[in-house]
Amino acid sequence: QVHLVESGGGLVQPGGSLRLSCVASGSMFSIYPVYWYRQAPGKQRELVAYIDSLSTTHYYEPSVRGRFTISRDNAENTAYLQMSGLEPDDTAVYYCNSHNSWGQGTQVTVSS
Q1: Contact, 19 vs 96, CB < 8 A?
Q2: CA pair distance 81, 49, nearest whole angstrom
């Protein structure tokens, strides 16, 4: 298992941008895919984006496609979720997941 810590959340106006980071401990981070999930109040946790270990395959939930970009830096044991064109419906706690481990989450609030 790896230990994951997310950061970068906050309050942003509609149309704004944020970059979330997920820093992993341990040497095995680079061989596992990374997933970003989010959970809005009263809703189930949903998969937002995925990246494989070599950054060759990506997946985006349709509502974020074209606005969010997932990336990773294996040398830094870090994954990112660049979010632009943020909308109120993007408000949620965002979690990263890798190798069966979850971070504690970071709150993203989109509001004017």
Answers
A1: no
A2: 8
CA–CA gap between residue 95 and residue 112 (Å, rounded):
24
Taken in order 80, 14, 62, 38, is the CA torsion positive or negative? positive
Confidence band, pLDDT 50/70/90 cuts, at residue 27: confident
Q: Cα 75 to the chain's mean position, in Å?
A: 18
Distances (CA, A) of 73 to 78, 81, 92: 5, 12, 24
Quote the pLDDT of residue 1.
73
- State residue 26's pLDDT score: 76
Give the residue carrying structure tokens 């895919």: 33
Residue 108: both structure tokens together? 């993203």
Distance in Å from the first CA to the final CA of the chain? 39
